[in-house]
Amino acid sequence: MHLEFHQIDAFTDRPFSGNPAVVYRLDAWLADGLMQQIAAEHNQAETAFVVREGAGWHIRWFTPTVEMPLCGHATLASAYALFELYDEPGERLDFSCLSGALSVSRDNGRLILDFPLAQASETVVSIELEQALGQPVLAALQGNELLAVLESEQAVRACQPDMKALAKLPGLGVIVTAPGLKHDFVSRYFAPGIGIDEDPVTGSTHCLLTPYWAARLGKNELSAFQCSARGGELHCRLDGERVKIAGQAVLVTGGTLFL
Q1: CA dist 203 to 71, 73, 112, 135, 232, Å?
Q2: CATH annotation of 2-116+245-258
Q3: Which of 136, 179, 206, 218 is deepest in the core (most CB within 10 A)?
Q4: Does residue 248 sit in helix, strand or coil?
């Protein structure tokens, strides 16, 4: 069996920045264990698999170690592949996934993710969290992810967490965020518990970040930057119970997997 794949850098307009994802467009689903092995072989933060279902697509995402319920950058990469490499017509793609209905539209060179808002509630700032991050934490929210608000962009950039300690904290991973110098807010995302020490640019975390900063700054249109080593820019909009996240993508490489 031969399977075609493409590696796409998401949330960027140039190679070697943003967040890389591998995309497979399949005719039918592979066994779960095989898809997990393929993701481990590529060893990227996410490998996405898409299969046509009716007028839309079903999408699944795997880290090198686990299947994820939601992933922004690999959805953007998948939409780029379907639009640009497989010539899908129209201006919108509809996806179904473990987290419900998603869509991606294209508009003026950008791809716009339409994702569900993520819920979180304030929680106590624990000593374990501050020690793991090596930074004072001003506030914390707990949902599927643990969100830690730091004092400044400098603190976010300087954060050098203890990954073993972070892996023991509740949630899929830990988001650190602060007001930005050139953007409304900045963030970084660490998820060693699911095999990702630091994710370069994470669309799904902005489903939690966007409502937090929209409430704090009093506006629904927000510019964001994820200040990992690769870095990536996101344009976010709170729209009721949905979050719109816009970005660009670029094809970097591709090939054939032989099984």
Answers
A1: 7, 5, 11, 24, 10
A2: 3.10.310.10
A3: 206
A4: coil
* Backbone dihedral angles phi then psi of residue 83, each to the nearest 5 degrees: -70, -50
Q: Which residues of the chain have pLDDT under 70?
A: none
- Catalytic residue flag (residue 130): no
Sequence ranges of the domains in the chain: 2-116+245-258, 121-240
Fold of 121-240: Diaminopimelate Epimerase; Chain A, domain 1 (3.10.310)
**pLDDT attached to residue 195:** 87
For residues 225 and 232, is the Cβ–Cβ distance under 8 A? yes
Q: Which of 4, 41, 46, 151 is catalytic?
A: 46
| pLDDT the model gives residue 86 | 98
Q: Give the DSSP H/E element, type plus range, for residue 209.
A: helix 206-217
- The predicted structure's pLDDT at residue 206: 97
